[in-house]
């Protein structure tokens, strides 16, 4: 599948960081968490100033018909659907009427265990960055957020990826990928994200975290919230299900990679077979042309092989690159969370050795 070729305007003030209003974070996380495990998305609004992209407002897209609560990627391509484009136009018009910043700067999506490297993400970002080169996508990993702190990351297509898309005419052939030195690490560029609170919200958070704010008659309330409070979660010997799911999805991605590689290998065999037939036809034509020259007859051009043979179309290498990027994502997550699981396993083994 080829991507649309877009001519991007020159960046006058490229952005290098993203600042999100805390109200936007609450609205975004509530939408994605309530719809979990279904994949949902919405539009983010704001402006870019002084190389900083400020996200000031966001609203969700309505779920697609028939999506229900099942986990699917139907809503992953929703930002460019006709129904949501009409919904987006109406919402922006209403927001302007109440003097709310209504400049689209990208969209947000929910993900499950970091599984967001797909064709829909690339297609949407190509369309958004064609209209505004500073557009981004915010990815909220609901599962990872429930395991630790907020997992909200901002991405945009890298300059290498956009150059390859432009130079190859939207077709990621092997020649175009090698010529532009494009790898799975060059698809997305991550931008640092920070959350901005109002002064009143900051004061409230400081008050809630102060030692004086504790329940009456409960002298241990401050100790339980302290950083030095006892934490017995480390004594749980069960392997983290988050880590188990990452390994499971990693194996599935590896299977997808081998399937994609098998498709490309089949293309290479077909291409070699056709090229062998073409060479045989050219050799035969040369022999016939030698006889025709002796008989003073017109010769046949060797380029006429295109009338008799058709080379197979090379499959896009984009799917292979996306799967490789997804495998790398799972590996990074496993590496990050496996240290705790490994410590537990070694502790169990050491305890068994002592008892034996």
Description:
Belongs to the eIF-3 subunit H family. This is Eukaryotic translation initiation factor 3 subunit H. It is found in: Cytoplasm. Component of the eukaryotic translation initiation factor 3 (eIF-3) complex. This protein is 49% helix and 14% strand. It is α/β, with parallel strands linked by helices and 356 residues long. The chain has 2 domains: 182 residues, Cytidine Deaminase, domain 2 (3-Layer(aba) Sandwich); 115 residues. An 8-stranded mixed sheet has the order 7-6-5-4-2-3-1-8. The longest helix is centred in the last third of the chain and has 54 residues. About 4% of the residues have low confidence.
Helix content: 40-55%
Give the name of the CATH architecture of the largest domain: 3-Layer(aba) Sandwich
- Residue-averaged pLDDT: 79
Quote the beta fraction. 5-15%
How many β strands by DSSP?
8
* Largest sheet descriptor: 8 strands, mixed
Low-confidence stretches: 7-11, 67-76
Class of secondary structure makeup: alpha/beta
Tally of separate domains: 2
CATH superfamily of the largest domain: Cytidine Deaminase, domain 2
Radius of gyration: 28 Å
Keywords:
metallopeptidase activity; JAMM/MPN+_dom; Cytidine Deaminase, domain 2; translation initiation factor activity; 8 strands; alpha/beta; extended; single chain
């Amino acid at each position: 599948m080829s991507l649309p070729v877009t001519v991007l305007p020159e960046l006058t003030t490229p952005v290098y960081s993203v600042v999100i209003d805390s109200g936007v974070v609450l609205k975004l996380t509530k939408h994605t968490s309530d719809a979990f495990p279904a994949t949902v998305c919405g539009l983010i609004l704001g402006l870019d100033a002084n190389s900083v992209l400020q996200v000031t407002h966001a609203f969700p897209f309505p779920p697609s018909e028939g999506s229900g609560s099942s986990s699917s990627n139907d809503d992953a391509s929703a930002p460019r659907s006709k129904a949501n484009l009409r919904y987006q136009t109406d919402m922006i018009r209403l927001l302007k009427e109440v003097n709310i910043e209504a400049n689209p700067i990208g969209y947000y999506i929910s993900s499950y265990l970091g599984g967001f490297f797909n064709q829909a993400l690339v297609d949407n970002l190509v369309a958004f960055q064609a209209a505004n080169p500073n557009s981004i996508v915010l990815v909220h990993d609901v599962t990872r957020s429930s395991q630790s702190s907020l997992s909200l990351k901002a991405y945009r297509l890298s300059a290498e990826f956009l150059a390859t898309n432009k130079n190859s005419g939207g077709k990621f052939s092997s020649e175009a990928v090698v010529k532009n030195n494009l790898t799975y690490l060059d698809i997305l560029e991550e931008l640092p994200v920070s959350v901005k609170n109002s002064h009143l919200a900051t004061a409230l958070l400081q008050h809630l975290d102060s030692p004086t704010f504790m329940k009456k008659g409960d002298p241990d309330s401050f100790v339980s919230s302290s950083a030095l409070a006892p934490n017995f979660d480390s004594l749980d010997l069960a392997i983290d299900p988050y880590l188990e799911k990452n390994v499971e999805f990693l194996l599935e991605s590896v299977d997808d990679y081998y399937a994609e590689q098998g498709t490309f290998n089949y293309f290479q065999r077909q291409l070699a077979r056709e090229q062998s037939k073409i060479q045989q036809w050219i050799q035969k034509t040369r022999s016939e042309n030698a006889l025709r020259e002796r008989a003073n007859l017109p010769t046949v051009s060797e380029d006429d092989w295109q009338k008799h043979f058709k080379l197979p179309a090379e499959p896009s290498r984009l799917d292979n690159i996306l799967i490789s990027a997804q495998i790398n994502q799972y590996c990074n997550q496993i590496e990050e969370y496996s240290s705790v699981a490994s410590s537990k396993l070694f502790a169990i083994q050491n305890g068994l050795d002592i008892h034996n």
